[in-house]
Write a structure and sequence with these properties.
- This protein is mostly beta strands.
- It contains 2 helices and 38 strands.
- Strands 1, 3, 4, 5, 7, 9, 10, 12, 14, 16, 19 and 22 form a 12-stranded mixed sheet that branches. An 11-stranded parallel sheet has the order 2-6-8-11-13-15-17-20-23-25-27, with no helix packed on it.
- The longest helix is centred in the first third of the chain and has 16 residues.
- The radius of gyration is 26 Å and the shape is elongated.
- The N terminus is likely disordered.
Length: 416
């Protein structure tokens, strides 16, 4: 049965060959033979031990247990052992999978060669747990077929630094993938062009993701997440739409995380994901309620919610009282008064006010019962009585606590 299926597949390819260019015929023929290859690295005896092309004998074919061999197009490439230089030359390389079992690798290009894949669409780039690896060679479409890329693997970091011209989708299903420019995400646009399921896009330098790239987070079954992250001090901006991959009422969450807690993610789109927005570290900057999805809660898990401009003045009902870290708000614009009418007093967490603007209590609004810190700007009681464990004075606070109307009290259980 397996032979018959292969024959049918081969016949189907032959049927299409007459309509393709010579280059595409050769590419499709190469793709039909998909062996598994392991880079020989320091064990190579080839005169060109760093070359990834079609002639250098730098591979062990684990499918046929033959060594050394040259690369056969359409194979799966594994890089294991001590990392060595790997450089594409002037030949485009067709690969189904690129698997890193150890760290320290950099797949580069010393010529015009690019990484490609054809009719079945996707290069799967898998990075092992805790590993740091780099692909600096460009990833491109074939002359006839569209290439898509799936970054996956354990909790390692894959750095992508080539100017990539593939026009398919970019998906993330494991680990961290680092970029420093939008052109490293290919040229594709449209809904679902970027898909993040249990993985993270990591901004290694400040840049803006093209708003025409629609983003999907999670999966159809829900309960997953997509993460946007930065290294310390970096700003990642995205004004496109983040949608939810969940179906049948299933929802997925968006996580914000920055190394060192000093990075910023700016969202500007009318996002429709239905899960929570989890602020794990760093700052999420928004200017509209739609930036944090359709219905989910904002969970403070070590990060700060920054409100910019003057158009967003209230997010009542959107804060998770079960948050495990301080409720940290940065009201960035001095002309903005942001109001809280939601009762947070069931939480024992601290409350931190940042930014030059005003944070004002209204209606049923109340603070969590931990410490109150007004680091910058104004906190307005607005005739509300609050009970907190204390008022933080770290010596660097320049903020002001005021009461714009009526009578108000602050009761502290610690007496400070």
């Amino acid at each position: 049965m397996l032979t018959t299926n292969k024959a049918k597949f081969a016949n189907r390819r032959k049927f299409h060959y007459g309509m393709l260019s010579t280059a595409a015929v050769l590419a499709a023929a190469h793709l039909a033979a998909a062996d598994n290859f392991t880079w020989l690295g320091t064990g190579s005896t080839d005169p060109n031990p760093t070359f990834w092309d079609l002639t250098a004998l730098n591979w062990n074919d684990t499918t046929t247990t033959t060594t050394p061999v040259a690369w056969t197009q359409g194979g799966a490439a594994t890089f294991a052992g001590a990392a060595t230089a790997v450089a594409l030359q002037n030949t485009d390389i067709f690969a189904t999978n690129i698997i890193f079992s150890t760290g320290g690798w950099n797949i580069s290009s010393a010529g015009t060669g690019t990484l490609q894949f054809g009719s079945t669409g996707t290069i799967v780039i898998s990075n092992g747990t805790g590993l740091l690896n780099t692909i600096s060679a460009a990833i491109a479409d074939t002359p006839t077929f569209v290439t898509s890329v799936n970054y996956t693997g354990g909790n390692g970091t894959m750095t992508v630094s080539g100017v990539n011209t593939y026009s398919g989708t970019t998906s993330f299903t494991g680990g961290w993938t680092a970029f420093s420019n939008d052109n490293q995400l290919g040229t594709g646009t449209g809904a679902g062009n970027i898909r993040i399921d249990g993985a993270s896009i990591l901004a290694a330098s400040s840049f803006q993701i093209n708003s025409g790239r629609g983003m999907l987070i999670g999966n159809a079954g829900g309960g997953s997440n997509g993460q946007l992250s930065t290294v310390a001090g970096v700003v990642l901006t995205y004004s496109g739409v983040i949608a939810d991959a969940g179906t049948g009422g299933n929802v997925n969450a968006l996580d914000i995380n920055t190394n060192g807690g000093t990075g910023t993610v700016i969202l500007g789109g009318a996002n429709s994901y239905g899960g929570n927005t989890n602020l794990n570290a760093g700052t999420l900057s928004i200017s509209s309620a739609g930036n944090i999805g359709s219905t989910g809660l904002v969970t403070f898990s070590g990060g700060t919610l920054q409100i910019t401009g003057t158009g967003l003045t209230n997010l009542d009902g959107r804060f998770n009282t079960a948050s495990a870290s301080p409720f940290s708000f940065d009201i960035n614009n001095a002309a903005n008064t942001f109001t809280l009418g939601q009762d947070l007093s069931s939480s024992t967490q601290n409350f931190v006010k940042l930014g030059a603007g005003t944070f004002q209590l209204t209606g049923a609004g109340n603070l969590p019962t931990g410490q109150l810190q007004v680091a910058v700007g104004t906190f307005d009681l607005n005739a509300h009585n609050v009970a907190v464990s204390g008022i933080s004075d770290t010596g660097v606070n320049t903020g002001t606590i005021t009461n714009s109307s009526g009578a108000a009290t602050i009761t502290t259980s610690s007496g400070t």
